[in-house]
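Changelog-adjacent note: as of this version, every example in the card shows the full chain rather than a window. The one below runs 232 residues end to end.
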Amino acid sequence: MITKKSLFFVEDDLSFGAVLKSYLEICNFSITWLDDGKHAFSTFKEGTYDLCLLDVMLPHVDGFSIGREIRSVDPNIPIIYLTAKSLKEDIITGYRLGADDYIIKPFDADVLIYKIAVALKRSDGAKSADNQLFQIGKYSFDPQLREIKLDGVKQLLSPKESALLKLLCEHKNELLSREVALKRIWGDDGYFTTRSMDVFITKLRKYLKDDPSVEIRNIHGSGFIMTYIDYL
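Full-length structure tokens:
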């Protein structure tokens, strides 16, 4: 039996929302629909979803703000914005926040289904990659469980700590640019997110300090390079 993909849908237009929800259900998706942004983030945290469909212009809390909050707890979930806001600045804002797609109303529902399918396929591929285990010097790192382990002692990582460490592993002995890390994990490369990433780097260094061969070097103005001894 194939499990239905679960979509988190926020849209304040009751007529449009009801029609699209019904169509998505016909296409074998499970839908959680809210018509107000006020409780969107708290509702999202209570469930498990495969993709988010967010209107931008919403009562109380706009879709961009909701997307930013969702990214803070789940940096990898696909987000598609559905909106009548067609200005270039709005589109750029959506993508800067980590949107997988930005669809301007009115749109063809069949096209939306294909875009959802592409985003889900890309996300499923990323989840498969998350199953990869890394050996970081004497530490073992499991991105899916978000834990590092040394001599049987485990350290649980936050979602962002795990995502950042995984990027560093994937770029072992290579420069991981600040811009790439910030946009991939935070969806924004502004001053405050840059400072936040520096704090996360400091935490990772602390977690890995018991193996002197593990080093995360700061390349001034560019990014970070992680090096370590391959014991295996």
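Structural remarks: Residues 109-130 form the longest helix (22 residues).
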